[in-house]
């Protein structure tokens, strides 16, 4: 399980008693004469650390690092697909796309150095802890037919290289693993192992009929048996904490667990698949029991800690339609499929999940029209929007007092202008004009705090050049 840790910061929201249908015209403030500084041209955003000390970007010839706010960009590696920065900002793990759909290169970079260390060019999965004290990956050797779990411990790395440790080798290409805290949970078919990275201890676990699950902090793991039991154990002691029978044979006789996740609340969300049908379903289980939830293919939502995104697939004899629902860590619905079906953006959530925002897009007199929506525990607010909200950027500002988004407006001579805007629940204010269309392939815009700042890739149309900009936030 890949643990991508891009944080969406936020806090509480002062209550507002505006009811649905109220709110001012959100298109009245359109003074957007401000432009934003460009940090990198012919480049795409890859990563900005939480303290805003450095920025990583990807260009045609590789990955570049530059100190902020005005440092010169230096090439540190070939082109990376993703990057994750340690919680203290002192190490970054990067990995390339999978070449030929099979292998990728993994690097370790320490801020301040002029080159990243290549750990492997034959990796499949990649995992690490939040502090990046280690990086784990699997390497498949075609000559021997062996799939090896390999680990680089950062405390053994020099500026030039990292020695690799091999805690597990299997004669297949079916090893799966996930990181939680400083523990790796590996599995191959019915077998499972715990790997304690600091000590090097390898512990064989009991059999499991589905892939086991590890909590994000590594303190608990879950196994599945052939009698439809879900069992949760303490990682340190291996003692059973609780168990449940997740399947009711009267209604789900031919269903099985396809994938599962453990949320930060300790709830197990099981994604279920029925034999000989495309339909999917999900249940949430904890120490009190298992219950159906609004989902069918659930996963932790990257960029929104505590939020679970579920793909809900509904099939008729002629077609299948996919919708999305958003749940909290206990499996309770935050935003349902009826809402997401009408929204032109991915819903935004405050850090405490008490506030959600989205749009509703309708067609009036042949033209598309967006309305902004904001729901808090005390009220629901909505405002009509001039222009159309862009799905690439829609989130709360770090203090959760406003919604930050981009919108496209048609100006003189039919040209489209992209504006960076905020909405406080009553009126929209423009922060400035973007030099292009927001671009998120594959990296989404990043908001950092202290000071509140947006980092964003913009594009000059389909196939056009891209640039990375920085926008101060109110």
Describe how the helices and strands are arranged:
Blueprint: E1 38-41, E2 44-48, E3 54-59, E4 62-67, E5 74-77, E6 82-85, E7 92-95, E8 104-109, E9 117-128, E10 134-141, E11 146-153, E12 164-170, E13 176-180, E14 183-188, E15 191-196, E16 201-204, E17 213-214, E18 220-224, E19 229-234, E20 240-245, H1 249-252, E21 255-262, E22 268-274, E23 280-286, E24 289-292, E25 298-300, E26 308-315, E27 320-327, E28 333-335, H2 337-342, E29 348-349, E30 356-364, E31 367-375, E32 380-384, E33 388-396, E34 403-410, E35 416-423, E36 428-433, E37 437-439, E38 446-448, E39 453-459, E40 466-472
Antiparallel strand pairs: 1-40, 2-3, 3-4, 4-5, 6-7, 7-8, 8-9, 9-10, 10-11, 11-12, 13-14, 14-15, 15-16, 17-18, 18-19, 19-20, 21-22, 22-23, 23-24, 25-26, 26-27, 27-28, 29-30, 30-31, 31-32, 33-34, 34-35, 35-36, 37-39, 38-39, 39-40
Q: Care to describe what's here?
A:
Helices cover 2% and strands 50% of the residues. Strands 6-7-8-9-10-11-12 form a 7-stranded antiparallel β-sheet, with no helix packed on it. Strands 1, 37, 38, 39 and 40 form a 5-stranded antiparallel β-sheet that branches. It has a 4-stranded antiparallel β-sheet with strand order 2-3-4-5, with no helix packed on it. The two termini are 36 Å apart. Strand 15 (191-196) and strand 16 form a beta hairpin.
């Amino acid at each position: 399980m890949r643990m991508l840790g891009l944080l969406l910061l936020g806090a509480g929201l002062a209550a507002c008693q505006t009811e649905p249908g109220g709110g001012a015209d959100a298109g009245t403030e359109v003074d957007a004469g401000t432009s934003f500084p460009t940090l990198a041209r012919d480049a795409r955003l890859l990563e900005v650390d939480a303290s805003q000390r450095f920025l990583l970007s990807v260009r045609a010839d590789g990955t570049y690092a530059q100190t902020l706010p005005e440092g010169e960009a230096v090439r540190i590696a070939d082109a990376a697909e993703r990057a994750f920065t340690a919680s203290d900002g002192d190490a970054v793990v990067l990995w390339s796309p999978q070449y030929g759909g099979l292998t990728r290169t993994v690097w370790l970079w320490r801020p301040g150095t002029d080159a990243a260390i290549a750990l492997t060019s034959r990796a499949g999965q990649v995992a690490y802890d939040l502090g990046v004290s280690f990086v784990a990956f699997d390497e498949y050797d075609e000559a021997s037919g062996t799939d090896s779990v390999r680990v680089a411990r950062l405390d053994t790395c020099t500026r030039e290289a990292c020695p690799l440790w091999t805690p597990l080798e299997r004669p297949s290409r079916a090893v799966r693993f996930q990181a939680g805290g400083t523990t790796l949970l590996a599995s191959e078919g019915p077998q499972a192992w715990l790997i304690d990275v600091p000590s090097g201890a390898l512990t064989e676990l009991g059999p499991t009929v589905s892939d086991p699950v590890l909590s994000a902090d590594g303190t608990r793991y879950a196994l599945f048996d052939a009698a439809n039991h879900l069992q949760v154990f303490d990682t340190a002691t291996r003692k059973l904490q609780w168990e449940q029978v997740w399947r009711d044979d009267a209604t789900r006789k031919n269903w099985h667990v396809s994938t599962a996740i453990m949320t930060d609340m300790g709830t197990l969300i099981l994604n279920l698949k029925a034999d000989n049908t495309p339909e999917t379903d999900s249940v949430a289980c904890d120490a009190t029991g298992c219950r159906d939830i609004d989902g069918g293919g659930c996963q932790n939502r990257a960029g929104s800690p505590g939020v679970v995104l579920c793909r809900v697939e509904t099939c008729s004899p002629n077609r299948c339609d996919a919708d999305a629902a958003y749940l909290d860590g206990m499996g309770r619905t935050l935003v349902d499929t009826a809402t997401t079906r009408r929204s032109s953006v991915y819903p935004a959530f405050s850090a405490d999940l008490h506030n959600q925002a989205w749009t509703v897009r309708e067609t009036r007199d042949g033209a598309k029209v967006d309305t902004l929506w904001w729901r808090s525990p005390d009220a629901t607010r909505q405002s009509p929007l001039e222009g159309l909200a862009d799905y690439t950027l829609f989130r709360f500002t770090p203090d959760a007092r406003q919604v930050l988004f981009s919108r496209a407006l048609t100006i003189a001579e039919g040209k489209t202008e992209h504006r960076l805007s905020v909405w406080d629940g009553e009126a929209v204010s423009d922060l400035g004009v973007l030099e292009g269309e927001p671009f998120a392939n594959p990296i989404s815009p990043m908001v950092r705090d202290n000071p509140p700042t947006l980092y964003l890739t913009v594009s000059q149309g389909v196939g056009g050049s891209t640039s990375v900009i920085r926008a101060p936030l109110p």
